[in-house]
Design goal:
Number of strands: 6
Largest sheet: 6 strands, parallel
Structural class: alpha/beta
Radius of gyration: 15 Å
Oligomer: single chain
CATH superfamily: Glycogen Phosphorylase B
Shape: globular
Strand content: 5-15%
Distance between the termini: 22 Å
Number of helices: 6
Number of domains: 1
CATH class: Alpha Beta
Strand order of the largest sheet: 3-2-1-4-5-6
CATH topology: Rossmann fold
Order of helices and strands: EHEHEHEHEEHH
Length: 182
Amino acid sequence: LSDHGLNRDLPWLTIHPGASASSRRYPWQHYAKVARRLVEEDGFQVLFTGTADETELVENIREEMRAPSFCLSMDLRVDDFAALLALTPLLVTNNSGPVHLAAAVGTPVVVLYALTNPQHQPWLVPARVLSHEVPCKYCYKSICPEGHQHCLSLIEPDRVVSTIRELWKERAATQFGSRTLA
């Protein structure tokens, strides 16, 4: 990570904005707003990850956020990605495979959750699961049957930022002493 310029002595987190189904992806413009605020207001270093197919998604976010960020290789093997997540102080992602990989290695997660199946939430790890209440919740569909994805798209970036701050402080107080954000 230090080879990429990331200083692990400063607050940092990983954002994995992809998911196999577009209906389970938080809007990339919202991710850009969240990341920009974390960098500018809290001094976070933001590391983006994704698959090779998500390169354009990640680059769109990084360009739109207009603040420094890092991007690790978009073709990490699963074991290397798991090792990265084990080092990551906090993961922000959609309800997708990285949530469960992070939980398996003990990494706290903020999940932007398309209300498809409530059984797919992280277990046994500090987590916050965010969604927007909609009448069609728990539809069990990979593609939004209503065509609007409001369960994700209406989650305000302010709510995501405040949730990240809350979990970061909880994590810092319980696992790593009382170090807080600047």
